[in-house]
Design brief:
The chain is of the alpha/beta class. It is built from 13 helices and 15 strands. It comes from Mariniflexile soesokkakense.
Length: 437
C-alpha cells in the first residue's frame, strides 16, 4: 500500500481511512516481529511507570532533566530526524487527520437528481502535474526538446496556450481545481468533483505519488478520500523522495482493465524540487560540464525532469488509446515554477512573483468516438484560469451538477472571459505587463 520504509505521519491517514483489505495489505508490509515486540515493551513500560510515585526532591535535577529533554526535541527538529520518530509521527498524523475533518467542509447533499448526464462516455483520466511551467515545455515553444513525445503527438491533442493557476502553492491551487471553490467563492461549503462522479454512477480512483498528510496536502487528501479507491505511493517530504512517477503505471493499467465506467485521478510528483530526483539516469539528456554555473545546472535538472514528465503523460495517453472505451485524458499542473527565468532565483514565492509561477500546461486527449459536448469549441488561445477546471471537467465529460455553469468551461462556445485575479486580488494580465517580468 505504501513504498517508503520509515513510519511517517502520512501513514496515520491511511490507517484511519483505509478499508479492511487495504489495512491488511499495510500491516503485512510494515508490521513485523521486531515492531510488535517493541510496541509490547513500550506498553509494559508505560504501566510500570504509572505505578511508581514520582516525587520532586531536587529542583536542579528536574530543571536539568527538562532542559535535556527539550534539547533532544530541538536537535531532532533541527536535524530533521524527528521525521523518522514513530511516536512523533503517530501523534502528528492523528492530530492532522482530525484537524482536517474539521477544517474542510464539503457539500453532503449531492443527489443524482441534481446531476445531468448528457453523454455516454466511459473513462475519464485527470492528471495533476506538479510544479511544471509551460514555459519549459517544447510543446509550448520552449527552445529545448523537453517534450518530444507530446510534441510529435500534438495534432491529437487540444492544447491550450493561455492557462494560469490561481496560486503559486499546491495547498491553495489544487482545491480550486477539483471543487466548486474559486477565487471569488463566499460559500461555507464546497462541492467535491469526485463526489459528483460517485453519485452519477462512476467508480472513482485516486493514485498519488505525493504523501497524504503534510502542510501542503491535507485538504487535497480530504478531497481524494471521497474516491471509491485511493492509494498513496509516497510518504516522505517532497524534496527528499526519489520515487518516480512510473510507479503508478501497474495500478493504472489494472484500473483500466476493470469493467464499468470510471474516473481516475492521478497526482504526480512531476517536476517538484529537488529536480534531479524526478527522473532516472536514462533521462539525463541535458548535462552540465565541469565549468557549469549553479544556474545552468539547475536549469538542466529541471529540463530533464520535464523530459521525463513528457514520457509519463504520453504513456498514460497511449495506454488509453489502445483501449476501445470512449475515453478522455486531461493534463494540467497545479502551478508553474520559476527556474531562473529572467531572474536570479528558482522556485516560487508569494513575495517575489513571476509570470512563470502561474503559467501551466493544460491539454486534452480524447478517443475517436468520445462524445464531446454539443457546444464544444476549441480555442487554443482562450484566456482561462484553472479555478474553473471543476466546471470544465463536468462539461467535457457530460456530467453536470446543478451548480456548474457551462459559461465557465474552457470547452464551451458560451465561455465568458473574466478578469484573472490571482492570489490577493492581483490582476494577472495587467500586473506583469505593467511593471513586473
Amino acid at each position: 500500500m505504501a513504498v517508503s520504509s520509515n513510519f511517517t505521519s502520512s501513514y496515520m491517514f491511511l490507517l484511519i481511512e483505509s478499508n479492511q483489505r487495504e489495512l491488511s495489505e499495510f500491516t503485512a508490509s510494515y508490521i513485523n516481529t521486531k515492531i510488535i515486540l517493541f510496541l509490547a515493551l513500550m506498553v509494559v513500560s508505560f504501566f510500570v511507570i504509572r505505578k511508581k510515585k514520582l516525587e520532586i526532591k531536587n529542583s536542579k535535577k528536574v530543571l536539568f532533566g527538562a532542559l535535556f529533554f527539550l534539547g533532544i526535541i530541538a536537535t531532532l527538529k533541527l536535524t530533521g530526524l524527528i521525521e523518522n520518530n514513530a511516536y512523533h509521527n503517530i501523534v502528528r498524523g492523528t492530530y492532522g487527520y482530525f484537524e482536517l475533518q474539521k477544517s474542510v467542509k464539503f457539500n453532503t447533499e449531492i443527489s443524482k437528481e441534481d446531476i445531468q448526464i448528457t453523454a455516454d462516455n466511459e473513462v475519464l483520466v485527470v492528471v495533476l502535474g506538479e510544479s511544471t511551467t509551460s514555459g519549459h515545455m517544447q510543446l509550448y515553444g520552449y527552445k529545448r526538446e523537453t517534450t518530444p513525445l507530446l510534441s510529435a503527438f500534438k495534432s491529437s491533442l487540444f492544447v491550450y496556450n493561455n492557462v494560469i493557476s490561481t496560486d503559486v502553492f499546491t495547498l491553495k491551487a489544487v482545491p480550486k481545481i477539483l471543487t466548486s471553490l474559486d477565487n471569488t467563492s463566499t460559500e461555507d461549503t464546497t462541492t467535491n468533483l469526485i463526489e459528483i462522479f460517485n453519485k452519477a454512477g462512476y467508480k472513482t480512483y485516486w493514485l498519488s505519488n505525493q504523501r497524504p498528510i503534510s502542510f501542503h496536502d491535507n485538504a487535497i487528501s480530504k478531497i481524494a478520500s471521497a474516491s471509491y479507491q485511493f492509494k498513496f505511493y509516497n510518504h516522505k517530504i517532497d524534496k527528499h523522495t526519489t520515487i518516480l512517477d512510473e510507479i503508478i503505471f501497474p495500478d493504472y493499467k489494472d484500473i483500466l482493465n476493470q469493467s464499468g465506467k470510471k474516473v481516475v485521478f492521478l497526482r504526480l510528483i512531476g517536476t517538484h524540487f529537488d529536480y534531479n530526483k524526478r527522473y532516472p539516469k536514462t533521462y539525463n539528456k541535458f548535462v552540465s560540464d565541469a565549468n557549469a554555473t549553479k544556474k545552468e545546472t539547475v536549469i538542466n535538472y529541471y529540463d530533464n525532469a520535464v523530459l521525463y514528465n513528457d514520457f509519463i503523460v504520453y504513456s498514460l495517453i497511449k495506454e488509453l488509446q489502445e483501449r476501445p472505451e470512449k475515453s478522455a485524458l486531461l493534463y494540467l499542473s497545479d502551478h508553474g515554477e520559476n527556474v531562473y527565468d529572467n531572474t536570479d532565483f528558482f522556485g516560487r514565492s508569494e513575495t517575489i512573483l513571476r509570470k512563470c509561477m502561474f503559467e501551466i500546461p493544460f491539454f486534452v486527449w480524447v478517443s475517436k468516438d468520445f462524445q464531446l459536448p454539443k457546444d464544444f469549441e476549441y480555442k487554443p488561445n482562450r484566456v482561462f484560469m484553472a479555478d474553473h477546471t471543476y466546471e470544465s471537467i463536468g462539461h467535457l465529460f457530460g456530467v453536470m451538477y446543478k451548480d456548474m455553469d457551462a459559461r465557465k468551461s474552457i470547452f464551451s462556445n458560451t465561455f465568458k472571459e473574466r478578469k484573472r485575479k490571482v492570489m490577493d486580488n492581483i490582476d494577472f494580465d495587467t500586473y506583469f505587463l505593467e511593471k513586473h517580468d
